[in-house]
Amino acid sequence: MIRPPPIRPVARAAARAVVGRLPLPVADALRRPLPSSPPPGRVRRALLRALREGGIPRSVSTFRLVDDPDLELVAADSLVLAQLYWYGVQGWEPELLPWWRSCCRAARSSLELGANVGYFAVQAGRAAPGGRHVAVEPHPLSARICRANLALNRITSVELVVAAAVADPAPASVRLLVPAEQLATPTVAFLAPGTELPEDMARNVTAAIDVPAVDVRRLVAGTDLIKLDVEGQEHALLAACRDHLAERRPTLFVEVLPGTVRLRTLLAELCRQDGYRCYAVTRERLVALDPGALATVRLKERYGGQDVILCAGDPPQVPAPADPGPGAADSQRGAAP
């Protein structure tokens, strides 16, 4: 996941001190859904960004999204949860969510590699309560929060696997590296060597934990929808299950970070050799990408998100004007509108 530009540690500490003691009536007033027209003023945008850096008030144990009150999440020290607390559905990948929910409803069996705190796993369970969804998350703290969020929303159709998906079937465990600023609830934790994670996200590693490993080939068996957000290991996992992709051609949601040369090359091969078509994701529509453009396209700058969708048949559809479940999508990921 690409994070918004961080503020300085001193400013972040000050924001945490303020937000931690923030009275709930004040926080609730600030959490009101932002209007799409007219756009919020510069002062409010700056205030919300500072509050987001401060996390969630300490008196909050669980919270409902301001623009999707049927969804409840636990309050924890997590960038994902802080974004959702302050901005609602608008706060975390709003451009991707309607397409994910639509594909989950159409899939018989789906797999999410890199579930983090479980936001997209919860959305999968809500969109398709009768389907089978497997969510894989290696970091034990993130997995614990994911499990709590599933329970809080009474979702029983999601199986949580607390392990790292790996391309090599041999190891029983692998070492997960965590940068210093991610030690609370990591948004970024990665495997090395072989990661294509951008250098600015992989530096300053101060912790390493051993976690169970599971062969990705075993996980993908029987699935027709796969979502990958695995911090630079997408190319390795897709290459390991290439036979399954060629035979079954499941729909793929793949995070494509800048500088991921091997991943972009592999995605182009899937289009040229295995019958896939690739689409950039926007909130309004999917944009067909020529395989040759995958090597250089700057997804975030051009389309507003970092993910592509690959499918062999017709592209997924969402009800106009947007998926009704999670509500409005009037913001960009990671920033106040």
From TrEMBL:
<dbReference type="Pfam" id="PF05050">
    <property type="entry name" value="Methyltransf_21"/>
</dbReference>
<dbReference type="InterPro" id="IPR029063">
    <property type="entry name" value="SAM-dependent_MTases_sf"/>
</dbReference>
<dbReference type="GO" id="GO:0008168">
    <property type="term" value="F:methyltransferase activity"/>
</dbReference>
<keyword id="KW-0808">Transferase</keyword>
<protein>
    <submittedName>
        <fullName>Methyltransferase, FkbM family</fullName>
    </submittedName>
</protein>
<dbReference type="GO" id="GO:0032259">
    <property type="term" value="P:methylation"/>
</dbReference>
<keyword id="KW-0489">Methyltransferase</keyword>
<feature type="region of interest" description="Disordered">
    <location>
        <begin position="314"/>
        <end position="337"/>
    </location>
</feature>
<dbReference type="InterPro" id="IPR052514">
    <property type="entry name" value="SAM-dependent_MTase"/>
</dbReference>
<dbReference type="InterPro" id="IPR006342">
    <property type="entry name" value="FkbM_mtfrase"/>
</dbReference>
<feature type="domain" description="Methyltransferase FkbM">
    <location>
        <begin position="113"/>
        <end position="277"/>
    </location>
</feature>
